[in-house]
């Protein structure tokens, strides 16, 4: 059949190639956006853990149990949340870390809450080559300055997140 009623094989191959290239570009962009969404979720969860530490300290302070604040050093802040973190696997010894992706766990040996990345193409690994984000509850004790009166001797606690680079930030 002639007369311009169909596609030539070359035209069909060109259309398939163009559609395939557009599909690959779309998939690459979707993976990038998915990794950005994971980063946003991790940062939101870290903010929840920080708030849990602050609330724990405030509760002890309000109950006049300030001596117990020092015991929060290295504690698992995930225990203080009303609901578990999404993907939280529990507490593990350093040698028996869970084999998972996009999960949280508490490392008892290092006394840190850890997030294992699912997508990490834009994440700079730590010195050990791991794509993990680590945070630890640290108690801060007031320091006396020579010649100055100490306003309070009550320690405070905060969640210290180990520095990491994700998307160059």
Automatic annotation (TrEMBL):
* RNA-binding as UniProt keyword: no
Q: Which SUPFAM superfamilies match?
A: Pili subunits
Tell me yes or no: is Transmembrane among this UniProt entry's keywords: yes
Top-level taxon = Bacteria
What residue intervals traverse the membrane?
12-32
Which keywords are on file for this protein? Membrane, Transmembrane, Transmembrane helix
Name of this chain's protein? Type II secretion system protein
Q: Which organism is it from?
A: Thiobacter aerophilum
């Amino acid at each position: 059949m002639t007369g311009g009623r169909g596609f030539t094989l070359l035209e069909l191959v060109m259309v398939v190639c163009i559609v395939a290239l557009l599909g690959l570009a779309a998939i690459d962009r979707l993976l990038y956006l998915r990794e950005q969404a994971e980063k946003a979720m991790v940062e939101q969860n870290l903010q929840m853990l920080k708030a849990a530490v602050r609330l724990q300290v405030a509760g002890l302070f309000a109950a006049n149990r300030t001596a117990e604040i020092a015991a929060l050093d290295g504690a698992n802040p995930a225990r203080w949340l009303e609901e578990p973190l999404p993907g939280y696997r529990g507490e593990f010894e350093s040698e028996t870390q869970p084999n998972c992706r996009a999960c949280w766990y508490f490392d008892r040996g290092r006394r840190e809450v850890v997030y294992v990345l699912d997508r990490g193409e834009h994440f700079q690994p730590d010195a050990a080559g791991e794509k993990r984000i680590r945070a630890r509850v640290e108690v801060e004790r007031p320091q006396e300055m020579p010649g100055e009166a100490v306003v309070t001797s009550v320690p405070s606690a905060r969640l210290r997140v180990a520095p990491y680079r994700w998307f160059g930030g």
